[in-house]
């Protein structure tokens, strides 16, 4: 009996569920045949970039349409919605759409007046199509001010050295993500950057390129080649201090063009200090010209300075493009650098006590010689192959980081150098983490609209003039990079310059990228905190008992920095003409 009752109840439940489904189906189709309306389009911001995850709603004749799935834009900013409409309503019905996304102004009641009939369906009904693309305007929300405050705070912590720059960037990134998933969960006006967007914002091409070059340099360090180059510089000078200073500047600049300029300074500073002490002159008279030259030389190539690596990766510029557009002006600036510092430190160089030149050369020959010729050969061959891949990477459509990773990996394999030692001691993990966190902080500013506000301000100030934009980006980059580290400044400027390239006539050639590169790299010479190589040089000089004050550094380097920027201004205007 109980079993029969249970079967009866089950049968009634099935019948009732079928009735409900039929009712729902009838309600959805308004108890009649239906037509299909397909609406599609693309949603972008003022910079022409696609906006993802824009929520879209529709209404017909003032009545909201309930769709089976929520409609939102893809990463490419595209959307497509399929709407079932009672047969006979289209195309005369009033179809409207609304769009909403945090940090953008909500757009409501957009009338779709371009509905066209496509074809009749085999199962009955008619297919209609409508296409509507639009641009959303930014909205100043609490997230905008929070992202602005965090970015400015990170800059202040780095510039005034209140904490290590890696910790400052890590703090900024942590605040952005935490606020997004706490306050932003309850109120979308506080949503700054999602975790997925944060991961996407990290430019792994930059990270892998830096890491691979650190490995190559780390292997080459074991051969003693950098110290040997300093010894050969002294041997070529034959006791002429002016010639020695000039050779050291040129060697440092050329080396920095193909290796990390921070590492170049780390390796050449100890030898320079020893040579200076032997000559009885202040090592600072050699160190400041060298670090100035390292920043000038590093500007010439894609891999010479971190700002160039960032620019090249973001703008998809090749190694050859950097060489073609920057080498000549960097050579001019290097000649000026040599002449200026030889004159500036003339009195100091004249104090040198040369002594027994042959004895000094013999001492340096024994002290700084090649310690592993086989490893040096392997390293030079792989470095040459890597640079060759850099040169042709554009034709191969290959990211520069792939070339660097290939060279570093093969060098580790054939040299049998301990990979664990390389990872632990030669890779500057704090620097790589700094880059990763900084990308997230800047992405937060871009997502909330701060970067677009700055870009629009630059565009309005230049009044659409390419010449004005070139000079503004060059000089603002130079002065700003002298005040703060050029790496975070460059990260902030990348989307701004990309936007200006699309709205200023004539900027399509990419000349604004060269303005940014020259301004950020050479402007970093202005103060001791303007570039990473400067900070390293000052720190090592202080540990060796030769402190360099902030004001002394400005006194020596700021004027020649301005002169090099003047040279760059003339060069860029000449190229633009």
List keywords for this structure.
577 residues, alpha+beta, Protocatechuate 3,4-Dioxygenase, subunit A, five-stranded antiparallel β-sheet, 10 strands, 9% strand
Helices and strands in order, then pairings?
Layout (H helix, E strand, L loop, with lengths): L1 H27 L5 E11 L10 E6 L2 E2 L6 E2 L5 E9 L8 E6 L6 E5 L4 E5 L5 E6 L2 E2 L6 H18 L5 H17 L1 H4 L8 H7 L2 H18 L3 H13 L3 H18 L2 H18 L5 H15 L7 H10 L3 H26 L1 H5 L6 H11 L5 H24 L3 H16 L3 H8 L2 H20 L1 H13 L3 H18 L2 H18 L7 H13 L8 H12 L6 H27 L1
Parallel strand pairs: 1-9, 1-10
Antiparallel strand pairs: 1-5, 2-3, 2-4, 2-6, 6-7, 8-9
Give a description of the structure.
With 577 residues, the protein is an alpha+beta fold. It folds into 3 domains: 30-135, Protocatechuate 3,4-Dioxygenase, subunit A (Sandwich), CATH 2.60.130; 142-189; 224-369 and 449-576, no CATH class. The chain contains 24 helices and 10 strands. The chain has helices spanning 2-28, 142-159, 165-181, 183-186, 195-201, 204-221, 225-237, 241-258, 261-278, 284-298, 306-315, 319-344, 346-350, 357-367, 373-396, 400-415, 419-426, 429-448, 450-462, 466-483, 486-503, 511-523, 532-543, 550-576, and strands spanning 34-44, 55-60, 63-64, 71-72, 78-86, 95-100, 107-111, 116-120, 126-131, 134-135. The strands form 2 sheets. Strands 1, 5, 8, 9 and 10 form a 5-stranded mixed beta sheet that branches. Strands 2, 3, 4, 6 and 7 form a 5-stranded antiparallel beta sheet that branches. A hairpin with a 5-residue loop joins β8 and β9. The N and C termini lie far apart (99 Å).
